[in-house]
Write a structure and sequence with these properties.
Two copies of one chain form a homodimer.
Chain A lengths: L2 E5 L2 E5 L4 H13 L4 E4 L10 H14 L4 E3 L1 E3 L6 H9 L4 E4 L1 H5 L13 H10 L2 E4 L21 H10 L4 E4 L5 H9 L4 E5 L8 H4 L14 H13 L4 E3 L8 H5 L17 H11 L6 H13 L8 E12 L4 E3 L2 E3 L7 E8 L1
Parallel strand pairs in A: 2-3, 3-4, 5-6, 6-7, 7-8, 8-9, 9-10
Antiparallel strand pairs in A: 1-11, 11-14, 12-13
Helix pairs in contact in A: 3-5
Chain lengths: 348, 348
């Protein structure tokens, strides 16, 4: 029997929602093989204060206390250096920037981060992490669309890194060769998350197939190759952030002329076996420990906890991914529903 | 009251299907303002012989005899120079090449047309038109996907044009600046069709929105600009081929993890008013007559028929596109269902 053991797997980008939906999905972090979840703040309304983040953390712990939740704040004009210090003191780890929020005070659709420099200064000082959704808004006049929105964002990454060289920055869910090369060219304070699904998909996969549609969209085969190569290389500044994002089966499967399908791919419940399957497919299974645990933990200064190893077992006959998950009135269809992968969790 | 009159509008690329579905859609050619339909042969099974094409034409005329149907054959290994001469004699106008058929005898996914050179020679001799679906098959290893499949096809266009300079060739449903420039650079025997929907859409519009998903997929905003610019320029070798393709509402709106949505946009029923709306939006309304009638008719040597003018009327309050069309058990949801456009047919 072929098995591998990963020490305290950590997912550095997850959406866990709130309320009843959260009760269905929060336990999937552990079920999918993970001991740590870096929780996104884009709830409705978003998490913009320390108090909200702590309340949200308590809510998640009530649902499933077996996962360590690292909390984040949503970057918005209301945030102050004082609030940053308070957040750090309360154990909040990062601040997430979304394009929409950043473009509120920007010229011609180009993001300007200058208004947030006092915030970043405080974050650099206290050691908080800046998480960037690295896309600029579409603008047909400037030829900017979902395909080049990430590449066009990269100058902002360079500028922020130059202005705050000690600020730890994570470019989230990279999808392009350009992004991989940009992060590589930065200093040790800049890292990058990669999702499981972007290691699997290209633009062809989401053409007409909304279950593979997410933002940022999967790009060219050569971009996917760059993602796979950096994982295979075992580069320590590139690690897992699943961006697992739950949406109802209805919102994922049915488009009407006035309502497109929801963007997001759900991988939490099957994440570690899926990653083993994918990394094995491109000859990088030996890098799973670094990618899904130690690299991210080192960057975030959250060392491996002993006694939290997760053992995976090779399943030659195939481990069939569940068609859907249900709890009370909520349900979910996971990525690759009904398909077989080569690994399963043996001991957790 | 603001009106314009277009002499015998002609759509040089339409899918009219067969059987009951055909009874719903064939009359939409005239309803959408068109007197001529250049009919695609990709029925099930495809139209590969003169006899099949004539039977199909008779079937369409039984459904609606008010439209002139120009028939085509599906390029396949069964086609012979003898059959080409027979087809020409029977009034069949063109032969359509699809990527799938062409790749049957090809190396490494690159199309090779050499096996069809005897056919093309016969076509050149008798004056038939070669219609090219100009995409090569996706191949992740070679970084070929739906986004660059058209640009990668263009060397084949150049090669065919060089080998058969007198053969009239139409690059169908161009979607990229590269394709527009390629056709422009060719001699007078090479033309290009452009759809209505590709004058409206970019990749952002079909991200998660299957009603805007078609093949070739809509590309970057700069590609859309190139399409609009060549229409605005009034270039006589660029004219309408709607590629209007009907699919059931179910197949357009519902994706499952194992079944993507059907590719295709349906515009026939609203085509001429839609084109007036679109061309007006980018300042090219004065080119509608050339684009939707005289340019294509000149290339195909099908002169304008007197007494077939269609008058459009400006509708300042908006002409709302029907949500759906029904006949017996069949139904259809058109492009921009429920949206308002600025024109309607006044007299036909």
């Amino acid at each position: 029997m072929y098995t591998i053991s990963i020490p305290s797997p950590a997912d550095f980008h997850v959406h866990l929602r709130q309320g009843s939906f959260s009760q269905l999905i929060a336990p999937h972090v552990r079920a999918g093989g993970f001991h740590l979840a870096y929780v996104m703040p884009n709830t409705k309304p978003p998490i913009t204060t320390t108090d909200q983040a702590l309340a949200y953390k308590a809510e998640l712990e009530r649902v499933d206390h077996s996962t360590e939740y690292l909390m984040t704040l949503y970057l918005s004009p209301e945030l102050t250096p004082h609030e940053i210090r308070k957040a750090k003191y309360a154990g909040i780890v990062g601040v997430k920037s979304y394009p929409r929020g950043v473009t509120t005070n920007s010229d011609g659709g180009i993001e300007s981060y200058e208004m947030y420099y006092p915030i970043f200064e405080a974050m650099e000082e206290v050691g908080m992490v800046l998480n960037l959704h690295g896309e600029i808004p579409s603008d047909p006049e400037a030829n900017i669309c979902v395909l080049n929105a990430e590449a066009q964002f990269l100058p902002h990454l360079f500028k922020l890194h130059a202005a705050f060289p000690r600020l730890r920055i994570v470019l989230e869910h990279a999808t392009t060769r350009a992004a991989i090369e940009a992060v590589k060219s930065c200093g040790p304070t800049v890292a990058c998350t990669i999702t499981a699904h972007h290691l699997a998909l290209t633009v062809d996969d989401w053409s007409g197939q909304s279950f593979h549609f997410c933002k940022p969209v999967a790009k060219y085969p050569d971009d996917r190759r760059a993602l796979r190569d950096v994982v295979k290389e075992g580069h320590p500044r590139f690690f897992l952030g699943s961006d697992s994002a739950p949406h109802s089966p209805q919102s994922k499967s049915i488009a009407t002329p006035t309502q497109p399908c929801a963007a997001g791919v759900y991988t939490s419940a099957i994440l570690l076996p899926l990653l083993a399957h994918l990394l094995e497919s491109f000859g990088a299974l030996d890098k799973l420990e670094g990618f899904a645990s130690t690299f991210g933990r080192a960057f975030y200064e959250k060392p491996v906890t002993t006694g939290e190893a997760v053992k995976l077992r090779k399943v030659p006959q195939g481990n069939r991914i569940q068609e859907s998950y249900h709890l009370a009135g909520d349900s979910l269809i996971p990525f690759w529903a009904g398909r077989s992968i080569g690994w399963e969790i043996a001991e957790s």
